[in-house]
Amino acid sequence: MAKPKVAFYWCASCGGCEEAVVDLNEAILGVVEAVDIALWPVALDFKKKHVESWEPGEVAVVFINGAVRTSEQEEWVKLLREKCPVVIAFGSCAHLGGIPGLSNSTTREESFKRKYFDSPSVDNAERVLPQRKTRVNGYELELPEFSATVRKLDDVIEVDYYLPGCPPVPKLIVEAVTAILEGKLPAKGAVLAPEKCLCDECPRKESKPEKVTIERFRRVATEKPDPEKCFLVEGFVCLGPATRSGCGELCIRGNMPCRGCFGPTAETRDQGAKFLSAVGSLLAADQEEKCAELAATLADPLGTFYRFSLPSSILKQRLS
Amino acid sequence: MGQKITIDPITRLEGHGKIEIFLDDQGEVERAFFQVPELRGFEAFCVGRPAEELARITPRICGVCPTAHHMASTKCLDDLYQVKPTSTARKLRELAYSAFFVEDHFLHFFYLGGPDFVVGPDAPAGERNILGVIAKVGLEIAGKVIRVRRELRAMMQTMMGKVIHPVFGLPGGVSKGITKENRDEFKKSAEFALEFAKEALAIFDKVVLQNERYVDLVLSEAFTHHTYSMGTVDENNCPNFYDGCLRVVDPDGAEVAKFGPHEYTDYIAEHVEPWSFITFPYLKKVGWQGFVDGPESGVYRVAPLSRLNVADRMATPLAQEAFEKMFQVLGGKPAHQTLAFHWARLIEALYAAERMIELLDDEEITGDDIRNLPTKTPSEGVGIVEAPRGTLIHHYKTDKNGIITGLNLIVATNHNAAPIAMSVEKAARGMVHGPEVTEGMLNLVEMAFRPYDPCLACATHALGKAPLVAHIHDHAGNLIRTVKRD
After folding, report:
1. Contacts of B171 in chain A (CB under 8 A)
2. Which of B41, B51, B237, B357 is positioned for an S-S bond with B402, CB 3.0–4.6 A?
3. Quick check: helix, strand or coil at residue A67?
């Protein structure tokens, strides 16, 4: 029997998802043994015309990482959707929008102004900005339109499964590939990670008292977290209560609080709202005034609660 | 009729890189442009975030060198909060950083740039990749390449929480120390890395230096640019990747500047062109003269060879020997041969491996005094490290609560943006003669930019070769023909 074919593709990403695949180390040899890779721009020279010539279903699965930002990326993922029965969103950016999705909290004009006018080292008295088309010595040079909005993959195409994480961890990658090979994929739409909250797996779980109350918010910049205690109990924002487990609690084991890159569990639609409601109920305040006072000690709720998920939130983006 | 060739590999740094080559009526190269057609806007969307979070956010600029961004950011936080890391914390940071340098330099040599030499610049494209390298150097060495990477990255994960997008850096120190058991295990990995670093130089010697054709290629004018060099040195003018002063030497090797992080805007300015999202830094006191080399042009390079050019010597004995040998073969210091970046990279890996052992032998490394808490009010900070690809600058401004109000980032490939365009142009002039442009000619052009920055090529080269399409257009923009590398 011929080996099943799989494909990899990336959109707007940092390369960490590719590194995560290389970090399978020797295990990647087993993957290569079991499947044929039909597309992997990182490694192989197959082009769009090859993808266009695929028979529908010929390539069983495509893993797509990165958020969608350009028309070129949009065309590619639509083509891959047409050809592949199973599409897996790989990593936080494809899953939720990821860190580049934070740019939905700003505007294109702001990005240009910061980069080309306000920078302390830029020498740009003539206020030159990158242009769609420029003529130099009679030759025409082009740049694509700079898109200010970052979209997650399922805003553009239908997605069958999600591998969460920034980046996904080797264990879950291997489990996902094994499930595909053995035909044991769960119901469509599933996130291929445990359906449990990070707090349930947290090595500091035992330190959490029955009733948690937050007296004030603290920051790791100026205070030392206790290496054994629940961050939240100590007043350090930790996205654990609103985040899915499966990462191996790497940040927490590194003595730093969770920032939510695995996204929420299936029961939650909006990770930031979920965290807000979780933390709201823990504040040591019974009056509105005291609540507001405490909330004011919380730095950057938008960028913290939605660190990886702004494009997937009900807030979406800033309009002007 | 003039022609335009587009080399548009799918690459990374800020997303994507693209090369345009213009041919004149005779089919000879007239101009070449290196364009970066994407901007992700970190300078804008980091505003409003708590400063300490930038050490966790900015690594997402690049998933290949997240440790460099994490470390530049962490040092920027020290400066912002005016707090020095404890002695143990400083050593832990440098240890993790040295491990990162070794594995990243090997990644580049064996997976990315190396295949051009080890397998051959005009070998069939299908063999010019890591698998071709394995076929040439043998499975035993390939197994060691994988093992070094696995062990060093496991060590980095233990120290920094995560290896892809680390978390341990904080103003005044780190979040977590190491145990004596960790240290003993790391020592074994470091010793293995050191042995392998020596072996890698021996491979380079055998494959490249004993091949007259390659030596001619390395020394050829087409791959040479007489520019200024910049890099970080310690108090003895030895290269240091984690900390020190920036030193600049002119094309003849004379020191023209030495400055601390706070003075960088006195020495470096960025030129803006309307045809690229990337800016083009130059030496402010020399001035921007366009895409040209020589002492009158402010164009400078940052890269492994540039770092060795600005150094008087290496801080460790084996690296020092290798340093002397390299400059002897290249005809003295400074050297300007772009392809020698690969050689310098292996010497740096050797230094970083030696440095790992020095740090692991230091009793303080297992100390538990890992953090000085900041007490001052933040306002502005600058953090500079040497990333594997060159100098990396993070500069933050905040309000009194440490919330970011502005930031400036100059990454390695940013510094090298003008030199990359120049190198491509020069290699194109030497190697490309139209109208019949062959695949081999295009790979030689690619070899001109590959030494600078696997961040541009690494996505496309993780297994060895770039998907490459060259569109040849006439003046009116009509597509005449497409060259594809298969």
Report:
1. 221-222
2. B51
3. strand
Closest residue by Cα to residue A191 from A138, A117, A244, A269: A244
Please give the share of chain B, as a percent, with pLDDT higher than 90.
57
Interface test with chain A among B272, B399, B460, by most A beta carbons within 10 Å = B272
Q: How confident is the model at residue A157 (pLDDT cuts 50, 70, 90)?
A: very high
Distance CA B179, CA B166 (A): 19
Distance CA(B465)–CA(A67), nearest Å, equals 24
Per residue, what are the HEC states of B100-158?
HHHHHHHHHHHHHCHHHHHCCCCCCHHHCCHHHHHHHHCHHHHHHHHHHHHHHHHHHHH
Question: Under an 8 A CB cutoff, do A44 and B20 touch?
Answer: no
Sequence spans of domains, chain B? 1-39+421-486, 225-336
In a domain, A189, yes or no: no
Per-residue pLDDT for A42 more than 70? no
> Is the per-residue pLDDT at B139 higher than 70?
yes
* Average of per-residue pLDDT values in chain A: 89
Calpha distance A241→A265 (Å, rounded): 10
Cα–Cα distance between B406 and A245 in angstroms, integer? 34
Q: Does residue A319 fall inside a structural domain?
A: no
pLDDT band of B85, cuts 50, 70, 90: very high
ipTM: 0.94
Tell whether A123 and A45 lie within a shared domain.
no
| Domain total of chain A | 3
pTM of the model as a whole: 0.92
Handedness of CA B329, B334, B338, B343 (dihedral sign): positive
For A137-200, the DSSP string reads: TTEEEE--------B-GGGTS--SEEE-SSS--HHHHHHHHHHHHTT---STT-BSS-SSBHHH
pLDDT recorded at residue B194: 98
Cα nearest neighbour of B112 on chain A: A43
Min Cα separation B10/chain A (Å): 7
Kindly determine whether residue A98 and residue B60, on different chains, have CB atoms separated by under 8 Å. Answer: yes
Query: How large is the average pLDDT for residues B203-227?
Result: 87
Once rounded to an integer, what is the mean pLDDT over residues A298-319? 88
Domain assignment of residue A191, yes or no: no
Higher-scoring residue by pLDDT: B260, B303: B260
